[in-house]
Amino acid sequence: MITKITLAVLAVAVIGLTVTWSTGQWESPQLKEIRKLQKEIQQTREKPSGEETAEAGQQTAEEEARDEIRREKIRSEKLAEYREKVKELPEHQRKSVETETRNQFLARIEKRIDRVLSLPPGERNAELDKQIDEGDKRRKRWQQEREAKQSENNGSSKTTGKNRWRTASTEQRNQWRRQMLAYTTPKQRAKFQEYRRVMNRRRKERGMPERGGHPF
Question: Looking at the domain assignment, is residue 108 inside a domain?
Answer without folding.
Answer: no
